[in-house]
Amino acid sequence: MARIERIRQRLENWALWRSRLDSNSLGYHTVNVLAVDVWGRNSYNGSQIPHVEQEAEETDQAVQAMEQAKAHLYDTVYAYYLQDLGVSSIARTLGKGQSTVHAQLGQADQFIDRWLQEQQRIREEREAMARGREYMRRAGSFTT
Questions:
Q1: pLDDT digits over 99-123, tens only?
Q2: Which of 57, 85, 137, 140 could form a disulfide with 89 if both were Cys (CB 3.0 to 4.6 A apart)?
Q3: pTM score
């Protein structure tokens, strides 16, 4: 199954965001020479670190939703992006073929894409309702 490039890139960005977030979770101030270089130029191996944390947080929510709905896809995404395991290592660990791991990454992309589209639909619906309420409030404030 083919990967969705924008979702793949989003997951790469999310993994960088998570690693940065997780490295600060203990509250210890550490300096990693590689990290200083990486964070200083806001990229790593061609992956752009999201400037807007909202994108990374939204991706994190999508991945968490995947954990609840499709745990096997979550496990593959977690191993690939957060544990930085290659496809062959994941296949060995899971006792699956490499083609299965590639297929699961493609399915994970589709899950995340659908989840993001649904969230966008919900946001647009809320905005439309708010505009409608505002219109009705204004229309009701005039007396004839």
A1: 999 999 999 999 999 999 999 999 9
A2: 85
A3: 0.74
